[in-house]
Fold this protein.
Amino acid sequence: MPQRTIAITAIFIAAVVIASALASESTLAVAPQQTTGKTVLDAVYTQDQAMRGGALFAANCARCHEGFCPDGPPLVGPLFIERWREDSLAALLTFMTGLPRVLGGVLNENEYVDVIAYLLQSNEFPSGAQQLTADSIGSVQLVSKGGPKPLPSNALVEVVGCFAHDGEDTLTLSQATTPIRIHRGIESTPEELKAAEGRAAGTLNFRLQNVQEIRPDFKPESVTGHKVLAKGVLGRQGSGSRIFVTSFEPLAAACTP
């Protein structure tokens, strides 16, 4: 494994540990994720679809996810919801379709959509008259039964904002967007960078940590005042919110409103 990958992995693990400690302290309120379409509270699947998904789950997934495999995470209950909430159901579908065959990746896309419908039913989200489809799933956000909420500490996120430093070791983002949950904290693809460039400025502030560890040649003054994309582990404490950075990339030479 390349040394850079090893270093980033070590920093990420350390960030999770530190963020866990911060989570026990009082937290600063952060605006919830903005819902642009439906949520799982809007009856986005049918009972018949959930029944089909249940049969597929029993035949292909239950062996690991109902207690027979130590590495099979629970798919019903708060641990499952916390892992995926405030994200599109498309992210869950992408994860499922990317599973290797040895881990159960034997179904086609439409079958996995039916399994997701079954998981929604198992987690007591309402059913309706319209089936969930591979085309519609990207517009449905997974939320808890109480509706959209701020992402928890330890969530892997990305944020776009205006970079600044105080001349010492304090690095910050101002005018930052609401954190978006992600599932890969490495360098961004060209498509991700293009999408980030188009995001309007937000109102949040974050302190950045670990930037100089993942980029040893980093010179803060070279990007001060620039619009940047930061990925990392979200941590909160009484004095503010922080991102333990795993990827940091400039987007534009100026911050725009």
Summary: The helical segments are 3-23, 47-60, 62-68, 78-84, 89-97, 109-122, 190-197, 211-214. The chain is about 35% helix and 20% strand.
